[in-house]
Amino acid sequence: MWKSDIAPRLSLMVLLLLLVGLSLPDPRLEAQGFGSLPDLVVKSLQLSNEQPLAGESLTLTATIANTGFGNAEGFFNVSFLVDRSQIGRRQLNGLRARQQATVQINWKAQLGTHTLEVEVDQPFGRIVESNETNNDLRRKITVLPLQGVRSLTGELLGAVAQGLERAGQSLQLKPDPDLFKLLNRLTEALGAASGAFSQAASSLEGAPAGLPAQLAQEPQVQMSSTFSGLYADLAQSLKQAQRALSQANLASAEAGLDRTKDRLAQLAELSLAGIRLTSLARAAATLQQVIEQTKQLEKALGGDQNVPVDQVVTDLLDQLSATGQDMVSAGQQTVQSASQRMVRFRDAEGKSLQRYFSGQELEIAAPGAGSLQWVLFDPEGKLLAQLQTKSERLHWSGHTDEGAPLPAGRYFYRAEVTEGREARVELGTLTAESATKSSTN
To answer: Is residue 23 part of a domain?
Structure first.
């Protein structure tokens, strides 16, 4: 009997010891006085270019603040990390209460999405602080491939299409005789579809970043915010359906799917850069059939003998897969339409432009256009060059309207294309490299 009581008694003793240990004051805090301790935080992390390109040398600037009431005495580290790997470390020699300081480090940007992080007084914790849990700051950045020309309009449409395609692919499930496994797969599919829309919403939300004021007011930029909001709603409603299904709350799952249907119907009424998503109306109608089958499943699982569970599940999966196929189709149609409408850039030899060098001549074309206007701005919105033609192509000398070669740097263009009575606008960036690099290209 005594032996059987050992485990619970020991567990209770360990728990009591832990509680007593947690309640004991830190002698370092007693010695300094809790109210007079410093509190080091990373206030901000800024990049020399918030839209970096692969291979670009960036300066990362971290602002470190002492928000406590005591001075931080002595040296402490400030570490810079990319994707949890340290890329460098700096030291600060003390920091007075309510003061701040900046430290910098250089990093060569690598293609892809990365998590940048700054840690202060880590990992050694030399400074005793009033709060030891707020010593780092993280942020995500996306480093884009080095390209002479990037169509921002094309990237917006690409984000719209990618969200639809990935979500639609997630919803296409194969039947399984094991109902429990099938419901688990369905739950995972809804979660994956939610994630796809969430990621696309983030991409669309960041579209206006860095644009000159006059381009940020373009209808397609404003509409991208509308699409971002609807995609975020789709992510949330699918997440609701996923959670409800995992809890066997089919009524709540139906509500989430119904909200998803409404958002798809709204998207079907909109257009972005002149491209409409009318085929999503079919996806919304098909999803209504999924909702009806979910109601039937609720009856079957509730004990209704008149509703065959196997048939209901089969029909539900068929309709859900059809919804996914409609979404994929809408995404593919968007990509196809976008690729046909985007302005094309070629060098003096007629080759597609990969990199652009200062002063290089360009051919700018919009196949099938009756007229074409192309305007180039610097990041502050100053007009540098303006060209127009009553045909589908024009030639640019690579010089500003003042006659100087375009200096190295990143610029923004606005192309207005007219086909018959329809006029559409494409926004993009032109990145000029120093002409001296062309010899190594």
So the answer is: no
Contact 119, 81 (CB under 8 A): yes
In this structure, the answer to whether residues 324 and 335 fall within a common structural domain is yes
139 and 196 assigned to the same domain: no
Cα separation, 425 vs 76, in Å, equals: 52
In tens, the pLDDT along 300-328 reads: 777 777 778 778 888 888 999 999 999 99
Residue 1 lies in a domain: no
Domain CATH code at residue 105:
2.60.40.10
Residue 58 maps to a domain:
yes
Q: Assess whether 158 and 115 both reside in one domain.
A: no
Does residue 235 form part of some domain?
A: yes
Q: What is the span of the domain harbouring residue 92?
A: 32-143
Task: Please give the tally of structural domains in the chain.
Answer: 3
What is the pTM assigned to this prediction? 0.68
Answer for the pair 386, 415: CB distance below 8 angstroms, yes or no. Answer: no
pLDDT of residue 132 exceeding 70, the answer is yes
pLDDT, one tens digit per residue, over 259-291 is 999 999 999 999 998 899 999 999 999 999 999
